[in-house]
Amino acid sequence: MAEDIFLKIESDKVDGESADKGHKGELEIQSWSWGVSNAGSAHRGTGAGTGKASFSDASFMMTMDKAAPILMQSSGTGVHHKKCTLTQRRAGGKEQVEFIKLTMEDVLVSSVQLSSSSQDAMVSFTLNFAKFKIEYTPQAASGGKDAKTEFSYNIAENATA
């Protein structure tokens, strides 16, 4: 199933080239990944959890666009962005369902890598953030939206938000 992924960086300087009606000027993302780990100790017979969760930086890949030099500048100078929002959607029914929404706050562009082949110039970058909210909205059999689930966490304070 075809899906579209957009990233909005709330800044007066970081604009992408999306012409999409609902995501104009946002970055068009090709792929992304992000996760959390927590060291377990069940194999030592001392309980299952040992401490603080470790959230990775979120990684993104996109085709080169006008935002690339600004992302590099942002990373190089350590500029923080108030909020970034990733939205992923798929076609369904009469509307396109935005089924993943990741909102990040107090965001630092922690790395930027440029790469190229004879096909496309690409930009890979990572975002480090202090707080997030992840929302998932399943697609109902009718093609519309079903009840969403969500989780908010303040990484800096190691507490649910």
UniProtKB/TrEMBL annotation:
Endpoints of the signal sequence: none
Pfam families per the UniProt record, alphabetical: T6SS_HCP (PF05638)
InterPro entries: Hcp1-lik_sf (IPR036624), HSI-I_assembly_Hcp1 (IPR053165), T6SS_Hcp (IPR008514)
Annotated protein name in UniProt: Hcp1 family type VI secretion system effector
Organism: Bosea vaviloviae
